[in-house]
Amino acid sequence: MTDIAPPVAAQRPHSDTRHGTTRNDPYNWLRAGNWREVMADPGVLPEDIRKYLEAENAWYESGFGKPTEALREKIYAEIRGRIKEDDSSVPTPDGPFAYASRTREGDQYPLIVRTPRDGGSETVLLDCNAEAGEGYFGFGGAEHSPCHTMVAWAADRNGSEYYTILIRDLDTGKDRDERIEKSGSGAVWANDSSRFYYVELDENHRPFRVREHVLGTSQADDAIVYEEKDAGFFVGVGMTQSRRYLTISAHDHQTSEVWLIDAENGGAPFCVEKRHENTEYSVEERSGTLYILTNDDEAEDFKIVTAPVSAPGVDNWADLVPHEAGRLILDVEVIANHLIRLERKDGLPRIVVRDLRDGREQTISFPEEAYSLGLISGYEFDTATIRFSYSSPTTPAQVFDLDLASGERVLRKQQEVPSGHDPALYETRRLFAKAPDGEEVPVTLLYRKGLVLDGSAPALLYGYGAYGHSIPAGFSVSVLSLVDRGFVYAIAHIRGGMDKGYRWYKNGRAAHKTNTFSDFIAAAEMLIEKGYSSKGRIVAEGGSAGGMLMGAIANMRPDLWAGVMAIVPFVDVLNTMLDDTLPLTPPEWPEWGNPITSEDDYKRIAAYSPYDNVEAKTYPPILALAGLTDPRVTYWEPAKWVAKLRATKTDENALYLRTNMDAGHGGASGRFERIKERAITYAFALKCTQLA
């Protein structure tokens, strides 16, 4: 028994009238008026809000944290024991060197290292542990200069995703005096190493400009190369694999536009093709020809076209890999003589390599029912070797090099599980759940062999279902802590993702958003019907947009769940989509709808927004995790949701909100601290199913 009472948030009058409808929102005060300042400096959070969040944290600690301390420590030790702490990536060659990252035993953060290409002693370019200091450290990556004498690296010091870019001189081992503040996480070098390009964030935390930084000058002098005028479009900067052109992409979730800059000579950017609503494209280059991945001309599952750099517009686009319905092309790489595409067909990924000299193709796939496959980009263009990764729920990750000339496949790395792992003890299945409208929803399962299908097993059902993101069926060292205790671990590949093609995404967004929720519920009912679990034995989990899913299914079918775990949950959907000052709101309108301008969108979002649909009824146990400086899902969304739930629901089931006061969307920054957060959710799942 806890000796403190659950916090009761004050209710303060606040109303909002849109399209003739007035909503009362008594917890609106939890949204800090100075949220922009809080992102940069959490110390300026208004005191009344801080006190409430700290009271919720104290309630969590008293009711759950302390009572589960031993269990969480055990789970933490198990997961950490499956991690090879002194590990390294496969070195990637570039010119005279090969670059890699590695970790030392006990370290929270990686080292960035290099060795001579043909072997020799290692040089540590950047030790993130030495740079981290105390508190949050979000490493934004490191990019070496083409001349191999500098590294541009980025760090976020409070979880708000405001990065500082620094330039490490590799001869001295020290950073240069110049610093780039409040940028995105990356820097892209020009080929002469005299300058780099980066994305600037505006006052609302939106990436809206690309600037050019000339070494030895002040950030204040950095030229504006591109500025986006539409608040609904985010900006990114990259480089073609050929290193011939810098790329500037302006995009929302359904529309994109690409500009190119000569990476050798600089100059003004030129547009490949002006944006057209609901048309996306990305660009690679080879020998004066652009290779463009696009859904133009009703190519719903994407196609690959070519165009000359000198005349890149859509009128000159010629099909190279025509559209094929049901074959979703996910990614394209182009090297000297080959085009490599990652695609998904029949729900499974595969890699297809085309020889651009003769058009011949070879396919890389695997025989398992469910697996994950990914391309690993290298630095070099003039190569005949590609690298890819493979794993499955039962098979630890493997990294392969494929020699395109000989066809030889070389295993370069096998994920080690120091505490031991026997794939033969586990079973992976790919099943299908029937949605209310008849669609077949893929569900990936992992469980111990010998499972008796009598409904007695607990299950953890994970879902996301937004932005076209698919959840890979890969290996996880953490979920074994549940599976080894008798859990069935299931991933519902619901609409809103692209697991079954672009159509699967379209039918889970905007006007069709509720399909995401009904698909997830159908997956749970399938587990019950087939005896993998039973009603009240299934724990649901989702994060970010998947956290919105958690709020929706808790409202719709609270009887199904043993517990609901909502990680940085997007639950105050209507209020957020009505607030066009927030970082992600304008770019999100194509995904959810614009309730400011559209009464139909307003009514539709209002009908499912988790916060707006909390009712006086019994809810399952709920755990919500948040980050104070989260720019993606602001801390007040879960805070308001939990406050309303506690004031409205009729049961006495557990309800906890834990806000990380020193982190943002991704939670704790160190690798071991992240395991501790994973242990929290697993302990909650075990408590909800009476296994702890």
Write the layout of secondary structure elements.
Elements lengths: L14 E4 L2 E4 L10 H6 L6 H19 L3 H13 L10 E3 L2 E6 L8 E6 L6 E5 H5 L5 E7 L5 E7 L6 E7 L4 E16 L5 E7 L5 E8 L8 E5 L6 E6 L5 E7 L4 E7 L3 E6 L9 E6 L2 E6 L8 E6 L9 E4 L5 E8 L3 E8 L2 E8 L5 E4 L7 E5 L8 E7 L6 E6 L5 E6 L11 E9 L5 E9 L10 E4 L17 H4 L4 E5 L9 H5 L7 H16 L8 E6 L1 H12 L4 E7 L5 H5 L7 H8 L6 H10 L13 E6 L8 H13 L6 E6 L10 H18 L4
Parallel strand pairs: 32-33, 32-34, 34-35, 35-36, 36-37
Antiparallel strand pairs: 1-2, 3-4, 4-5, 5-6, 7-8, 8-9, 9-10, 10-11, 11-12, 12-13, 14-15, 15-16, 16-17, 18-19, 19-20, 20-21, 22-23, 23-24, 24-25, 26-27, 27-28, 28-29, 30-31, 31-33
Helix pairs in contact: 3-13
Instruction: Determine the mean pLDDT.
Output: 96
Total number of helices: 13
The rounded distance between the terminal residues' Cα atoms is 16 Å
The count of β-strands is: 37
Profile the largest sheet: 8 strands, mixed
Taken from the alpha-carbon principal axes, the silhouette is globular
Rg, rounded, reads 25 Å
